[in-house]
């Protein structure tokens, strides 16, 4: 297997892990944001928390795996992105910190005020990561303010905020993950809670599609990059061993060059609407499959638009990092590929087993009968 093929494989693996996180942990975040909306009593809120109770920690493994993969496979991408986005990532971590303590401490005391404050913490623990993830995708599309000097030292500049794009990306993330959470709750709850979730889906699906289309419009108005010249893709490259120019079609160049790729953003537009329709018809499983598919399609749309770029630079286009020049050595990628070949099937198999064991619906009756052992 040559170096160029390894680079492509690792681009696919990183994308797979990030999509896995959005799909698997996305409904957890959606449930957290829906907590005060579809659960009106303490027992109903406990139903929501315990519907994701057996799986939410395992779902966050996808995020940990994705960050670890960036560090090992794309060290320059890891260094540049985590430094440039230090402040929003601190908000992300703060939000993620609120989730485990919120789950563990909320029901320790019966005091309504105690539980109400922990409910707010759980909502913030879902809202903050969702907003940061949406904003991060917006920053990727507009480029981060970094550049490399001749010694490959990274220098940073000030952000030039594209507020229409950023706000649209954050709004899309909110609507999409709330739709995904609503679809999940329709599978895991019954009665009035499931009915409220179905009502929420009526507007969340169309809103997600509208905002995704609006994001596409803003993207079409932006400059994009293309590689005009680069060294041997099968060799070790540095970020400055290429020449990058502004693309006439912006970030839509890949779609223009390969029209069949338009099916991906088309699915991103259509699947949220299908999820809403499935909820209206009482087809909960179809609703969550289509909302999860919408998450994957939207993430894949961004990846295709940027390809082969993975971290564009707004200061110096030629300093932008691509899958060809932001990777680790050939030996590192090959060894890690072997590790992934062993661990990934174990992770997927364990995840499937947990979901099988935790199948079934959660109800207020179960909360009353088993309350001492539940969240």
Automatic annotation (TrEMBL):
<keyword id="KW-0812">Transmembrane</keyword>
<keyword id="KW-0813">Transport</keyword>
<dbReference type="GO" id="GO:0019646">
    <property type="term" value="P:aerobic electron transport chain"/>
</dbReference>
<dbReference type="GO" id="GO:0046872">
    <property type="term" value="F:metal ion binding"/>
</dbReference>
<feature type="transmembrane region" description="Helical">
    <location>
        <begin position="121"/>
        <end position="141"/>
    </location>
</feature>
<keyword id="KW-1133">Transmembrane helix</keyword>
<keyword id="KW-0472">Membrane</keyword>
<keyword id="KW-0249">Electron transport</keyword>
<feature type="transmembrane region" description="Helical">
    <location>
        <begin position="331"/>
        <end position="358"/>
    </location>
</feature>
<keyword id="KW-0408">Iron</keyword>
<feature type="transmembrane region" description="Helical">
    <location>
        <begin position="161"/>
        <end position="182"/>
    </location>
</feature>
<feature type="transmembrane region" description="Helical">
    <location>
        <begin position="83"/>
        <end position="101"/>
    </location>
</feature>
<dbReference type="GO" id="GO:0016682">
    <property type="term" value="F:oxidoreductase activity, acting on diphenols and related substances as donors, oxygen as acceptor"/>
</dbReference>
<protein>
    <submittedName>
        <fullName>Cytochrome d ubiquinol oxidase subunit II</fullName>
    </submittedName>
</protein>
<comment type="similarity">
    <text>Belongs to the cytochrome ubiquinol oxidase subunit 2 family.</text>
</comment>
<dbReference type="GO" id="GO:0005886">
    <property type="term" value="C:plasma membrane"/>
</dbReference>
<keyword id="KW-0349">Heme</keyword>
<keyword id="KW-0479">Metal-binding</keyword>
<feature type="transmembrane region" description="Helical">
    <location>
        <begin position="260"/>
        <end position="279"/>
    </location>
</feature>
<feature type="transmembrane region" description="Helical">
    <location>
        <begin position="203"/>
        <end position="220"/>
    </location>
</feature>
<feature type="transmembrane region" description="Helical">
    <location>
        <begin position="286"/>
        <end position="311"/>
    </location>
</feature>
<dbReference type="GO" id="GO:0009055">
    <property type="term" value="F:electron transfer activity"/>
</dbReference>
<dbReference type="GO" id="GO:0070069">
    <property type="term" value="C:cytochrome complex"/>
</dbReference>
<keyword id="KW-1003">Cell membrane</keyword>
<feature type="transmembrane region" description="Helical">
    <location>
        <begin position="12"/>
        <end position="39"/>
    </location>
</feature>
<dbReference type="Pfam" id="PF02322">
    <property type="entry name" value="Cyt_bd_oxida_II"/>
</dbReference>
<dbReference type="InterPro" id="IPR003317">
    <property type="entry name" value="Cyt-d_oxidase_su2"/>
</dbReference>
């Amino acid at each position: 297997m040559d170096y160029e093929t390894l680079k492509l494989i690792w681009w696919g693996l990183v994308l797979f892990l990030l999509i896995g996180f959005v799909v698997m942990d996305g409904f957890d975040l959606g449930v957290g944001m829906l907590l005060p909306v579809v659960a009106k009593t303490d027992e109903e809120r406990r139903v929501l928390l315990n519907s994701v109770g057996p799986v939410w920690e395992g779902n966050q493994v996808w995020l940990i795996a994705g960050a670890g993969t960036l560090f090992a496979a794309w060290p320059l991408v890891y260094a540049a992105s985590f430094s440039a986005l230090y402040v929003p990532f601190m908000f992300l971590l703060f939000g993620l910190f609120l989730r485990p303590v919120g789950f563990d401490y909320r029901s320790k005391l019966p005091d309504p005020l105690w539980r109400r404050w922990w409910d707010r913490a759980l909502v913030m623990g879902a809202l903050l990561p969702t907003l940061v993830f949406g904003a991060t995708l917006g920053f990727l599309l507009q480029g981060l303010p970094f550049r490399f000097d001749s010694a490959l030292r990274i220098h940073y500049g000030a952000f030039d905020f594209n507020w229409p794009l950023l706000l649209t990306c954050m709004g899309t993330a909110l609507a999409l993950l709330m739709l995904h959470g609503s679809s999940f709750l329709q599978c895991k709850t019954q009665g009035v809670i499931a009915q409220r979730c179905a009502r929420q889906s009526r507007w969340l699906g169309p809103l997600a599609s509208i905002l995704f289309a609006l994001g596409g419009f803003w993207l079409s108005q932006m400059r994009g990059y293309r590689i005009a010249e680069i060294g041997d893709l099968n060799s070790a490259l540095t970020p400055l061993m290429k020449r990058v120019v502004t693309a006439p079609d912006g970030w839509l160049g890949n779609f223009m060059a390969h029209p069949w790729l338009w099916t991906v953003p088309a699915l991103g537009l259509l699947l949220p609407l299908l999820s809403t329709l499935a909820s209206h018809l009482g087809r909960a499983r179809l609703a969550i499959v289509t909302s999860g598919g919408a998450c994957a399609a939207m993430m894949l749309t961004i990846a295709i638009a940027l390809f082969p770029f993975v971290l564009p630079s707004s200061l110096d286009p030629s300093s932008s990092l691509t899958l060809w020049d932001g990777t680790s050595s050939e030996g590192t990628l090959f060894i890690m590929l072997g590790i992934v070949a062993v661990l990934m099937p174990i992770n997927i198999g364990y995840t499937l087993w947990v979901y099988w064991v935790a199948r079934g619906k959660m109800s207020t009756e179960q909360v009353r009968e088993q309350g001492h052992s539940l969240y």
